[in-house]
């Protein structure tokens, strides 16, 4: 049976993920409604889907069950790559500004960049690289 972490959506990391979902969806809607370049739309959809998957991973506590990958680090890498791509795409969308929707989508994309950076910093603070984790400590 899958266990649900009911406190996660109310926590700061959960609220950041929800904010990222909302802003990514708004970015997608703006780009799609203005018939922007396909790359703009695809990037917004991919970010939305990946964020939904990470949100469900933490909400359903699947990160505790699937230990073959260190999920917070994968989440940080995803956020940083999203920042890189969204800076490039959204600056292009703002500079091109073929329609108002493209401009608004670019602005929301830059807002999403800020949320991704905040999420990365928050996750990075939780990761301990040089400290032992849990029961795997060798005692002498």
Describe the protein's architecture and organization.
The chain is elongated and about 50 Å long. The chain contains 5 helices and no strands. It has helices at residues 12-33, 38-59, 62-65, 71-96, 100-126. The termini are far apart. The chain is an all-alpha fold and 140 residues long. The relative contact order is 0.16. The model has no long low-confidence stretch (mean pLDDT 86).
Helical content class: over 70%
Measured by DSSP, the beta-strand proportion falls in under 5%
Shape: elongated
Structural class: mainly alpha
Radius of gyration: 17 Å
Total helices: the number is: 5
Q: Which key features would you list for this structure?
A:
140 residues; mainly alpha; 5 helices; 72% helix; chemokine activity; transmembrane helix; membrane; Chemokine like factor; Marvel
Write the layout of secondary structure elements.
Blueprint: H1 12-33, H2 38-59, H3 62-65, H4 71-96, H5 100-126
Short description:
This protein has helices at residues 12-33, 38-59, 62-65, 71-96, 100-126. The protein is mainly α. The model has no long low-confidence stretch (mean pLDDT 86).
